[in-house]
Amino acid sequence: MGKMLKEFKQFIARGNVMDMAIGIIIGAAFTAIVNSMVADLINPIISLFLGGVDFSGLYIVLGSGDYPSIAAAEEAGAAVFAYGRFVMAVINFLIIAWVVFLLARAMNRMREATLGPKKKAPAVNPGPTELDILKEIRDSLKK
Predict the structure, then answer these.
(1) Residue 22 CB neighbour total at 10 angstroms
(2) Fewest beta carbons less than 10 Å away: which of 33, 46, 78, 143?
(3) CA dihedral 77, 80, 86, 92 (to 10 degrees)
């Protein structure tokens, strides 16, 4: 048990685990910012261009019944095909993916500006290839 605890401490103390934990914490905080940006800034602009259509309220009731809203249909226990929520989830994903791409791009540029461009590793002679070795064997057998 003591050896396992020691190994666990070594595992936790590694830089990669700590970096991952920090990334998850910052990611959770960043998610709130991105969600607010999507809900409070981008969705109203999309709605403006689409004539006030709110995709999240679009649905089809599977079965009988007529309900004034998706919430009323769900509350009544009706089976609801909420395609509008899916459309909004796709739009939110694309926006979040774009923002993350822009952030990663900016971070890479800052890293290059501070550290300089990555230097290429010098070419290493990998030695003879399998084909070269087979040719040598062939030639030695001919002798």
Answers:
(1) 10
(2) 143
(3) -40
pTM (2 d.p.): 0.52
CB of 78 closer than 8 Å to CB of 63: yes
How far apart CA 87 and CA 95 sit, in angstroms, is 12
Q: pLDDT tens digits, the chain, 143 residues: what are they?
A: 788 888 877 777 776 777 788 888 888 888 888 778 877 887 788 778 877 666 777 888 888 888 888 888 888 888 888 888 888 888 878 877 887 788 889 888 888 888 876 666 666 777 788 888 888 888 888 87
Q: How far is the CA of 15 from the CAs of 4, 19, 27, 29, 92, in angstroms?
A: 19, 6, 18, 21, 32
* Same structural domain, 77 and 137: yes
Are 137 and 81 in a shared domain?
yes
Closest C-alpha among 98, 11, 95 to residue 45: 95
Burial of 69 (0-12, 13-18, 19+ CB in 10 A): exposed
